[in-house]
Amino acid sequence: MQAHQDIIANIGEKLGLPLTF
């Protein structure tokens, strides 16, 4: 499921945090 990674990356970008799961 790559959608999960996309969503997390999107949230990280909005918050300005480098989130990588």
Explain the overall architecture.
- The chain has one helix at residues 2-15.
- The longest helix has 14 residues, at 2-15.
- It is mainly alpha-helical and 21 residues long.
- The chain has 1 helix and no strands.
- This is Chaperone SicP.
- It comes from Salmonella enterica (Salmonella choleraesuis).
How many distinct beta strands? 0
Count of alpha and pi helical runs = 1
From the alpha carbons, calculate the radius of gyration and give it in angstroms: 8 Å
Q: What is the averaged pLDDT score?
A: 78
Protein name: Chaperone SicP
Organism: Salmonella enterica (Salmonella choleraesuis)
Task: Describe the structure concisely for a colleague.
The protein is mainly alpha-helical and 21 residues long.
What are its keywords?
21 residues; mainly alpha; 1 helix; elongated; Chaperone SicP
Question: Which SSEs are present, and which pair or pack?
Answer:
Layout: H1 2-15
